[in-house]
Amino acid sequence: MRYTSAAIESLVDELAKLPGIGRKTAQRLAMHILQEPKGEAEKLANAIIEMKEKVIRCSVCQNVTDRDADPCAICSSPVRDRTVICVVESPVDMLAFEKTGFYKGLFHVLHGVISPLDGIGPDDIKVRELLVRLGDGEHRQVREVVLALNPTVEGETTALYLSKLLKPLGMTVSKIARGIPVGAELEFVDEATLSRALEGRSAM
Fold it and tell me: In this structure, are 120 and 162 located in the same domain?
C-alpha cells in the first residue's frame, strides 16, 4: 500500500529500516505520529537528534554513555567489583545483566562478534580495546573475565578466540552456563535464567 502523501511514505520508509520493524508496523507508527500533536512529534524528533549528538562510547568499557559522563556510571562506580569483567556483544546485553541485580562487576562491550561469512573479523569489534584495558596498570587487579556472548556459532567462535588471547595474561577465563537455549538472544532471556547462567559459569 502506498500513501498519497510523499511525506508519509518517506517516514514509513525510514521507520521500516529499524530492526524488528516491518512495513506494516512502520505504517502504524507513521500514522500514530501523524495523529499526535505537533509538539509530541517535535519531542520525538528532538530526542533522536539529541541522542545522536550527545551519546558516545565509554572510553573504558565501550558501553554507550553521554558525552559529559565519560567514563560511564558503571566504570566510575566505587562499589563495583573491579576483579571481574563481563564481556558482552552489545549494550542491550549489558542491560539484560544489569536488570538481574546479580552481577556487580565491570563490563566490556564488543559491539559485534566475529563472523567471517559477513566479513567481520577481530579488528572490526572492540577486541583490541579489551586487551589494552587488561594490560594497563589500573586493570591489573582483574582476576576473571566472563565471556557472556550469545549462544550462536558466531558467539562461540568469538568466545574461543578471546579465550586463547586472554589465558596467557594469567587470569581466569570463564563463560556463562548453558541454561540459555542455543540461538537465543541474551536481551530476551529472563533475569532468573541470566542470574543462574552467571552463577554457574565455567572455566574455558
Answer: yes
